[in-house]
Specification:
This protein has 79 residues and is mostly helical. Helices cover 56% and strands 0% of the residues. Helix 3 packs across helix 4. It is globular. The mean pLDDT is 83.
């Protein structure tokens, strides 16, 4: 795991889930298209998640976690 990706995993309690998804995606140097392909969803869906305009179902959180190689808890709201 690169330093850039490792530092991107740090949870910022002030960021939205969409901002966190975008940060993790960008740390890998991926476009929305690349993340969508890895997660098996449409690019439009990734864009909506990053804008917080579409709720994530647990299944989607699991797909994103696998694609981004993070724990699913990294993609859930911070208590």
């Amino acid at each position: 795991m690169t330093t850039r990706i490792r530092s991107a995993l740090a949870v910022n309690p002030d960021e939205t889930i969409g901002q966190r998804i975008a940060r993790l995606r960008k740390a890998r140097g991926w476009t929305q298209y690349a993340l969508a392909a890895e997660a098996g969803v449409h690019r439009w869906t990734v864009g909506r998640w990053e804008l917080n305009r579409m709720g994530q179902h647990r299944r989607h959180s699991l797909l994103l976690a696998v694609a981004l190689n993070v724990d699913v808890s990294d993609l859930e709201p911070t208590p």
